[in-house]
């Protein structure tokens, strides 16, 4: 595995006092087409009970993956869905969405999940919003002989030595930047190779355990909360430590457009940001029903 850069997640707070770990880059856009990854992981309700009350978005796509607990999603388009462990949700906000994400009342065993922001190309930023989720269709997974498991959350994936066993998530397709997302888990001390050379850009976010990588003949370790940007043209070898390994793999095609970011809006010019603020303040995003 050839590592281009390393970024450490930082503690942050969002919504109504929700504690998260965040990796973001709206400046250099090192993760292009991805902009940000938030991880919520706590068994203490006080860390997430406030949830994310109604708020707007424009110009991005949000991709949510829940591993434990759950949220209820509501948006101005009329979608009301409980997103629970194993579920994925994709929302292409386009010209504007108002939504809320509140912890489920029956989720009493803590919460662990991710929300990923994907940039949209300028030509699509003002198209109508799109909403999809996998509450009815399970995410397909591929289990390697050594116990490694690859769950496809979006896109097509394969182990390097199982080229006839590629899997495709047909329920969540068409993400901006050809984004493809997978959850890879390995048992303790196991190793697996992934074929990633059909992607232009690949990032790996470690959420559990330790990853060991051979760098110029020296073994280096990376712990949970680390985002690695890797060269997809080099064989990607994942080596787990004594506690196993869990990581999200974020692949895609860089959009390579200058952006301007302000809060929930990501556009290409400051004038477009100003217009987004005005449109929201004037009620042009629609209204969210909480009943």
From TrEMBL:
Note on cofactor: Binds 1 Fe cation per subunit.
Keyword terms of this UniProt record: Iron, Metal-binding
Keyword hit for Transcription regulation: no
Binding site for Fe cation: 55, 57, 99, 101
UniProt GO MF annotations: metal ion binding
Family matches, as Gene3D superfamilies: Jelly Rolls
Domain Pirin N-terminal as annotated: residue spans: 28-118
Cofactor entry: Fe cation
Family matches, as InterPro entries: Pirin, Pirin_C_dom, Pirin_N_dom, RmlC-like_jellyroll, RmlC_Cupin_sf
Domain Pirin C-terminal per the UniProt entry, residue ranges: 182-286
Family to which this protein belongs: Belongs to the pirin family.
Protein name: Pirin family protein
Lineage: Bacteria, Pseudomonadati, Pseudomonadota, Gammaproteobacteria, Alteromonadales
């Amino acid at each position: 595995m050839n590592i281009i850069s390393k970024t450490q997640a930082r503690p942050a707070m969002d919504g109504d006092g929700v504690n998260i770990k965040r990796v973001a880059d709206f400046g250099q856009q090192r993760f292009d087409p991805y902009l940000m990854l938030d991880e919520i992981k706590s068994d203490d309700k006080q860390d997430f009970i406030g949830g994310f009350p109604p708020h707007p978005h424009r110009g991005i796509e949000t991709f949510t993956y829940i591993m434990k607990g759950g949220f209820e999603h509501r948006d101005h388009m009329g979608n009301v869905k409980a997103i629970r462990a194993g579920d994925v949700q994709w929302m292409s906000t386009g010209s504007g969405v108002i939504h809320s994400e509140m912890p489920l009342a029956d989720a009493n065993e803590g919460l662990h999940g991710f929300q990923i922001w994907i940039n949209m190309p300028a030509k699509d930023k003002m198209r109508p919003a799109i909403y999809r989720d996998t509450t009815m269709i399970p995410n397909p997974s591929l289990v390697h002989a050594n116990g490694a498991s690859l769950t496809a959350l979006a896109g097509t994936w394969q182990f390097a030595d199982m080229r006839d066993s590629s899997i495709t998530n047909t329920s969540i397709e068409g993400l901006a930047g050809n984004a493809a997302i997978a959850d890879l888990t390995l048992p303790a001390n196991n190793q697996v190779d992934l074929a990633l050379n059909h992607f232009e850009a690949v990032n790996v976010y470690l959420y559990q355990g330790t990853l060991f990588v051979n760098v110029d003949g020296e073994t280096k370790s990376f712990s949970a909360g680390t985002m690695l940007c890797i060269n997809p043209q080099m064989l990607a070898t994942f080596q787990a430590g004594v506690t196993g390994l869990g990581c999200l793999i974020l692949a895609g095609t860089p959009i390579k457009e200058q952006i301007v970011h302000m809060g929930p809006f990501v556009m290409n010019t400051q004038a477009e940001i100003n217009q987004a603020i005005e449109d929201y303040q004037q009620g042009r995003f629609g209204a969210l029903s909480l009943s």
